[in-house]
């Protein structure tokens, strides 16, 4: 989120949702588990079976580093904090 977007009060960007798809662990691979989720190339969208879900950002399965998630999603919020804006980052799931 650019600072100008925050300053202009762009309400369409108040909430952004990112999903990070973790790779299978070694024990999961040894058990023969396979990915049940796929990413639509070039889109922030994932598919689970016949269902599609669209997010603002999708990370993980494309080999994007963890720093990309921070740079895209968290760093602009931290910067906005120093300009007097409120921000919340909610992280949920396995680590």
Short account of what is shown:
The chain has 95 residues and is an alpha+beta fold. Helices cover 27% and strands 17% of the residues. The strands form 2 sheets. Strands 2-3-4 form a 3-stranded antiparallel sheet, with no helix packed on it.
SSE layout:
Blueprint: H1 3-7, E1 18-20, H2 26-30, E2 38-39, E3 45-48, E4 51-54, E5 57-59, H3 66-81
Parallel strand pairs: 1-5
Antiparallel strand pairs: 2-3, 3-4
Provide an overview of this structure.
The chain starts with a helix and ends in a 14-residue tail after the last helix. It has about 100 residues and is α+β, with helices and mostly antiparallel strands. It has helices at about 5, 25-30, 65-80, and strands spanning about 20, 40, 45-50, 50-55, 55-60. The radius of gyration is 16 Å and the shape is elongated. Helices cover about 25% and strands about 15% of the residues. The strands form two sheets. It has a three-stranded antiparallel β-sheet, with no helix packed on it. It is built from three helices and five strands, in the order αβαββββα.
Unreliable segments of 5+ consecutive residues: 1-9
Helicity range of the residues? 25-40%
What is the rounded Rg?
16 Å
Q: First CA to last CA: what distance?
A: 25 Å
- Give helix and strand order, one letter per element, not per position: HEHEEEEH
Shape: elongated
Class by helix and strand content?
Answer: alpha+beta
Query: Would you tell me the overall average pLDDT?
Result: 83
Q: Tell me about the largest β-sheet.
A: 3 strands, antiparallel
List the strand order in the largest sheet: 2-3-4
Task: Give me the count of strands.
Answer: 5
Q: State which percent range the strand residues make up.
A: 15-25%
